[in-house]
Amino acid sequence: MIKLIDLLENKILVPRRSKEERSKNYLIATQKKIQQYIKDGGKGDLDLKGTPITSLPQGLTVGRNLYLRNTPITTLPQNLKVGGNLSLNNTPITSLPQGLTVGGSLFLSNTPLTSLPQDLKVGGYLHLSKTPISKKYNEKQIKQMVPGVKGTIYI
Question: pTM value?
Answer without folding.
Answer: 0.85
